[in-house]
Amino acid sequence: ILQGYRAEMDNPAMLILMPPVLRNRKDVLFGNMPEIYDFHNKIFLHSLESCLGAPERVGFCFLDRREDFQMYEKYCQNKPRSESLWRQCSESTFFQECQRKLEHKLGLDSYLLKPVQRLTKYQLLLKELLKYSTSCDGVQELQEALVAMLDLLKSVNDSMHQISITGYDGDLSELGKVLMQGSFSVWTGHRKGPTKMKDLARFKPMQRHLFLYEKALVFCKKREEHGDGYDKTSSYSFKHFLKMNAVGITENVKGDHRKFEIWYSGREEVYVVQAQTVDLKMAWLNEIRKILF
């Protein structure tokens, strides 16, 4: 892919076949695929091959290179830009010619999806290895490697949602890392207003998509964009945010185990938040507690 497509974008003989919108945009189309390729080709493949006689060391290979896998997050974040460019010129003669020379049955887009698919495949492979490794050396490392890969998947998924936030004036990266994101029913009350907490239950809740960052809790409204199948994307229009250093929580709200309360600057504003399940509520409270305490 890097030689048969990416390098061809610099080939003067192929320039005439290339649509103008594609020129000088190989970094958009391929993202950091060269970096991923180099990592696997020069580093990770060799360390995996060194485990041929001792498969129990595979977990250690993953843990040893844990930081390097962050490059996949970068690749996935670029994916929407890449797909958008591909859609504009997928029919071009340039791509058809490259595909013909390579004798590939599948188009380039199938191969651009490979790094994303590989990321989900790793945790499945580690699960399989664990299944057959109950009482041998290296089990703990395998378990830790699986957790690390699942964390990476979650982190990639969260950041993919984050890049769809619209209408936020500042720089979201200044709020720190995205720790959690998800959809909730939210009721709002203000101390100044006449609303008592028990009256809140009567009102219809708002549906909000919440993003928990290290420094802020961001409230958005989810908008489904129109598209078909794979092209269908959601965007999140920014509503408001609460700085974590002024937030308090009440873990239980009468009448529903799935609800908890988030209040702001000494209960000046109160938000009753309902998760879809009690487990989900507890996961969020755990993360919020970590930040607060």
From TrEMBL:
This is MCF2 protein. PANTHER family: PROTO-ONCOGENE DBL, RHO GUANINE EXCHANGE FACTOR-RELATED. Keywords: Guanine-nucleotide releasing factor, Phosphoprotein. It holds the Pfam family SOS1_NGEF_PH. The gene is Mcf2. One of its GO terms (biological process) is intracellular signal transduction. InterPro entries: DBL_dom_sf (IPR035899), DH_dom (IPR000219), GDS_CDC24_CS (IPR001331), PH-like_dom_sf (IPR011993), PH_domain (IPR001849), RhoGEF_Guanine_NuclExch_SF (IPR051336), SOS1_NGEF_PH (IPR055251). Coiled coil: none annotated. Residues 177-293 form the PH domain. PROSITE patterns: DH_1, DH_2, PH_DOMAIN. SMART domains: PH, RhoGEF. One of its GO terms (cellular component) is cytoplasm. GO terms for molecular function: guanyl-nucleotide exchange factor activity. Residues 1-159 form the DH domain.
